[in-house]
Amino acid sequence: MVLGKEYQVYRNVCPRNCFCTCSMLSYVRHGRLEKVAGDPLHGFTRGRLCAKGYAYVQRVYAPERVVFPLRQEPRGSGNWRRISWTEALDIIARKILEIKGRYGSLWPIALYVHYGHLGLLHLAVEGFFDALGFITKIQGNLCWSAGLEANLLDMGRNLQPDPETMANARSIIIWGANPAWTALHQMHFIDAARRLGALVVVIDPLITATAAQADLHIQVNPGGDGALALGVAKYLVEKGWYEKDFAKKYLLGWEEFKSYLQNKIKYTDIYRVAGVDQASIEELAKILVEHRPVALWKGMGLQRYTNGGQNIRAINALAALAGCLGSSGGGLYYASLQTWDLFNFHARNWSPPPGVKGEHRYLPITRAGEGLLAAQEPPVKFLWIARANPLSQAPDPAALQQAMSNMELVVLVDQFLTSTSQYADLFLPCTTQFEEWEIIPSYWHWWVAINQQAISPVGESKSDLEIAWNLSARLNELSPGSCNFPTGGDEEEWVAAEFNPYVYQLLGIKDYRELLQGPRKLKMPERGGEPSFATPSRKYELYSAKARQAGLPAIPVLTSPLSPPPPYPFRLLTPHFQGGNNSQFLNLPWLISGSREPVLRLHPAIADKLNLKSGDLVRVYNDQGELVLPVLVTQRVPPQVVVCYQGGTGGKINRLLGGVETDLGKEGAGAPAPAYFETFVNIARV
Ligand SMILES: Nc1nc2c(c(=O)[nH]1)N[C@H]1C(S)=C(S)[C@@H](COP(=O)(O)OP(=O)(O)OC[C@H]3O[C@@H](n4cnc5c(=O)[nH]c(N)nc54)[C@H](O)[C@@H]3O)O[C@H]1N2
Ligand SMILES: Nc1nc2c(c(=O)[nH]1)N[C@H]1C(S)=C(S)[C@@H](COP(=O)(O)OP(=O)(O)OC[C@H]3O[C@@H](n4cnc5c(=O)[nH]c(N)nc54)[C@H](O)[C@@H]3O)O[C@H]1N2
Ligand code: SF4
Ligand SMILES: [Mo]
């Protein structure tokens, strides 16, 4: 704690699922959070936050924030009444024990967690259920698994260079990401490179805020990126412009891939799938060769297809040929899991009581609703949802809603009555980051900051960790020895328990408390300029035996996304929105005032055909469902596509999404992710 003139100033961290993981200073007076600011000692975010970050005071004290446990009777009625924590925990503990007695198994108990908060202590929810026994788990994530698996197949891990070094690149290829909205602070390093003469290329079907600032924008067809990457690779090979020494030394399957490029794919197919011409292929090839080092960033938007994983593999292969790997200042970016895996995961790693044997039952997240409905012997009767708003964010929410309707007890831990709360029985209010201790690593940059408690919990809210302790205590009162999770503790001590000598060494500190003086940057081990791979062959695997065993193409090959079926001619893209973070923030006045959402963006040619102007209402529909939205006519969207940013419709847009899955994602995440952008709709004036 630092004493300011009038305020007490604390260090907090934004725990949202965001590349930036900003360190923030919170200003507290008379026990009340009055303002937040960026932390100037954080080298990546450099004293700044995004608009959402500055709005946190509104979030903490939002009139609609729920700060007491509630019970809804009957489920779906909206008839919520306040209950005590004692009553809430008693209902839950008794239900767990009763189910266990009835079925002789904990499989009727299901857990759905996601990325609503990225703190390590929040993983206590998983730790608690593991300490209880073997349950049903919703497996995988709704986010990035296709790209993660593609990287694992090719390179054996998900490492990336320090994103601050992007400032030293001479060209930056932003492929299917929109950092001007989704990774705001990375723009500083991109701009720094530009000031030194770097070229910025954006590859995106939409003219995004990032594309609008680029030197070159390639408006690829949705799902056509693999084709584009292979086209550029083919051209590099034909010209002899690829990295020959690198290919010889590091590429497994090089001859096979080279022969594929030279003899098996035709430019005409590439142009058709990618929607680009030869001039764009040559221009990109020249930039890769003439503006080195090249930083190539694969965004998450581009992998949300049935061929998303293959497209990432093709882009990786192009990066390998173009000398991108291991180059100083350049490199391949997607996610940094090496900075994540360093911690102890003390809160998550708990085992069942001694003598309890078995295994968890897993249901893939892409079809969670269907899976929960279909699960038998024993069926699922109890669902705990934390850090997740699946009725807004998951595909096919109708199936999940139905599954929730069939449960005996649904518990939701959140701060607001979200779309998902409609089908919950019990609402347990949780704290915000200002009301708890936490440690929140980044999946992008190399900084680590501490989150200290700045104010008392608002109302009766509790952290997810404290809820887990309290529930374990009640369970053990009712049935001693039934849960192996601790029944109490000190949050700050649990922060300390996440550290180990290696993290301390990388941070250059001896004690976590030193982080109260300011964030520190991890000194990740140098890779000595030599690229290294963690694949079975220890090489970059253009040819992946693992992929082949899984029934997938062994080398990156030309693949197409789905085509629109005749009744639904428009592809619906639902990427991430500037003013929200998934379903969060769009309830706060500052962010609502700056937002036009929800709208359906469409091209003037479609508007002309349907005689629509901005503001007119349309029905957007397909076999899954329908929804009425105002249109926004814009040249920024190509004619075959309509766009509605996700999160802004309270989940209604995801009612149009089915259970289509990405091609990759099982390895690492346990299940593929939804292929969100393989959704087709029609529109009609209302
Ligand atoms: N159509 C479409 N859908 C998508 C996507 C898309 O591109 N298009 N993207 C997908 C992606 S990439 C992602 S990551 C998912 C995100 O899906 P989710 O992770 O489910 O969504 P969020 O809205 O980030 O967070 C869920 C909830 O966590 C709550 N929360 C915040 N802090 C805490 C806490 O401390 N404890 C608890 N228990 N809860 C807390 C928030 O209030 C919020 O209601 O959405 C996916 N959905
Ligand atoms: N403001 C804000 N920031 C966020 C989030 C948020 O909701 N709002 N969410 C966070 C989370 S959970 C995530 S996963 C990340 C996501 O952040 P990003 O990696 O930026 O991913 P998306 O927003 O899904 O999509 C990025 C771009 O991909 C484009 N795209 C769609 N299809 C294709 C394609 O076939 N090829 C190519 N080349 N491009 C395509 C979209 O038009 C979009 O502009 O952002 C994080 N940061
Ligand atoms: S949402 Fe992202 S950019 Fe905004 S304050 Fe949080 S971590 Fe920073
Ligand atoms: Mo995500």
Automatic annotation (TrEMBL):
Q: What are the protein's UniProt keywords?
A: Iron, Iron-sulfur, Metal-binding
Please name the GO terms that the record assigns under molecular function: iron-sulfur cluster binding; metal ion binding; molybdopterin cofactor binding; oxidoreductase activity
Highest taxon in the source lineage? Bacteria
Q: Return any one Pfam family short name.
A: Molybdopterin
InterPro entries the record matches: Asp_de-COase-like_dom_sf (IPR009010), MoPterin_dinucl-bd_dom (IPR006657), Mopterin_OxRdtase (IPR006656), Mopterin_OxRdtase_4Fe-4S_dom (IPR006963), Prok_Mopterin_Oxidored (IPR050612)
Chain ranges of the 4Fe-4S Mo/W bis-MGD-type domain: 7-64
* Similarity field: Belongs to the prokaryotic molybdopterin-containing oxidoreductase family.
Question: By its UniProt entry, which PANTHER family does this protein fall under?
Answer: OXIDOREDUCTASE YYAE-RELATED, TRIMETHYLAMINE-N-OXIDE REDUCTASE
What protein does this entry describe? Anaerobic selenocysteine-containing dehydrogenase
